[in-house]
Amino acid sequence: xxxxxxxxxxxxxxxxxxxxxxxxxxxxxxxxxxxxxxxxxxxxxxxxxxxxxxxxxxxxxxxxxxxxxxxxxxxxxxxxxxxxxxxxxxxxxxxxxxxxxxxxxxxxxxxxxxxxxxxxxxxxxxxxxxxxxxxxxxxxxxxxxxxxxxxxxxxxxxxxxxxxxxxxxxxxxxxxxxxxxxxxxxxxxxxxxxxxxxxxxxxxxxxxxxxxxxxxxxxxxxxxxxxxxxxxxxxxxxxxxxxxxxxxxxxxxxxxxxxxxxxxxxxxxxxxxxxxxxxxxxxxxxxxxxxxxxxxxxxxxxxxxxxxxxxxxxxxxxxxxxxxxxxxxxxxxxxxxxxxxxxxxxxxxxxxxxxxxxxxxxxxxxxxxxxxxxxxxxxxxxxxxxxxxxxxxxxxxxxxxxxxxxxxxxxxxxxxxxxxxxxxxxxxxxxxxxxxxxxxxxxxxxxxxxxxxxxxxxxxxxxx
Length: 464
Fold this sequence. Notes:
Radius of gyration: 25 Å
Shape: globular
Keywords: Membrane, Transmembrane, Transmembrane helix
Organism: Danaus chrysippus (African queen)
InterPro entries: ODR-4-like
Transmembrane segments: 428-450
Oligomer: single chain
Protein name: (African queen) hypothetical protein
C-alpha cells in the first residue's frame, strides 16, 4: 500500500519559491502521524552552515555564513543540529518526518547524491534518538520522507527510506497531496502542576547539574507516563476519535460557523496514588535538595480523527519534551556546572514557554528571564524560516516567576522558611539548597521511636 501524505498548499508555494530561484536548498519536513492520516504541517529550510567550535544554541546566531551550493557539501551534523533545535519548538505529537531538497540534480537516480541523502537522514535519526525525553523520533515508524523538487523542471517527487538499517533499506514511493484549505486541528490544553523536592547526593565522583536533571527527568517521566488523563473532566474511551467527543458536546442548535472552529479541550492528568509512592524506603543522608515548583503549560494539536489514546500520548510527550528542553537550555546557559551553590539557598528560573503561530496551529519557543518576545522572532526566522510579528507571539501561557519572596535571601532568613513558601501556579522555578533531608530525618525518628509511640497510644485508649 502506497503511503499517502497530506499537506497545506502553502508548502507547495514554499517549495516553488526556492525552486524558482534555481538554488540548492535543504530543509526539514515537520508533521504528525496518526492511525487516521499523516499530515505534513510545515517545511523549514536549514540555515546556512556557520563555522563554530561546537554545536550549541549560539551556532544558529553567528553572523559568518558558509554558503552550500550542492547536496554533497552538506554537513550531516549541521542538519542534525537544526533538527534538535526545531524539535524543542514542536508540541507533542509532531516530529521531524524527513527532509526536502530543491536542486537541479536527480537525487534518486544519482548514486552519490542518494548516498548523501541516506547519510543525512541516518545522522538526524541517530541524533534525535540520543535524548529519549525529547521524543525526537516517532517510535512506530522509521521510514523518513524525502521530498525533492527539480529547479529546472519543477517536478515534485517524494519517496521514503528506512533509517537505521544500513545501506540495503528499501525505497518506496509516496503519494503527496496538497490541500487547498487549511487543515482543522483539535487543540488540547493542559496545565501540569510541578511541585516536587528531590534530594542531592554527591558521590565521590561528584555530580553535575546535567546529571541531576537527568535523574529528575527520569522520575518525572515515570510519574507522567503512569498518570490517567481526563478530557473536559471525564475519562474517555481510548479508541474514540476526538471529533466524536466534539460532536457529543456540541448542542444541536450549533451553527455551521461554530462547527468549523472546534473549541479547545481541557486536559487534566492524575497520578494514581500507588504509583506516587517509592518502591523502597531507605535512609539517605543528603548534601542538599532541589525544589521544583510551578505549572508547565501544554498545548497540543491533533488531527480531529485521531484517537483519544493518541492524544493522551501526545500530551504526555509534550510535557516531558518541554521539561527536557528547558533543562537543556538552562544547563547550556550556566557558567558553573557545580550543582550545589555556595549560598544556603539559590533561586533559579528556567526559560518559560511562549507560543508562535505556524500555519493554522502553534509551535513554541522559550524565553529566559528578562528576554522580550522579540527574541522569539529570531528563533522562528532562523529555525522555522518564518516571518511573524511580535504581536503574534502568545506570552501569557506561562508568567515569569515572582522573585519578590526571595529577596529575603539578602537577609538572615532560614532556608526552611523559604522552601515552605507556596508559589504561584503559573510560575515554573526550582530552588537548590545545602541542607539535610529534613523529611527523611523526621521519618527515621518516627521509625526509631515507633514502639514508644504505640505503647503510649495504647495506654491512652485503655484509660479512656
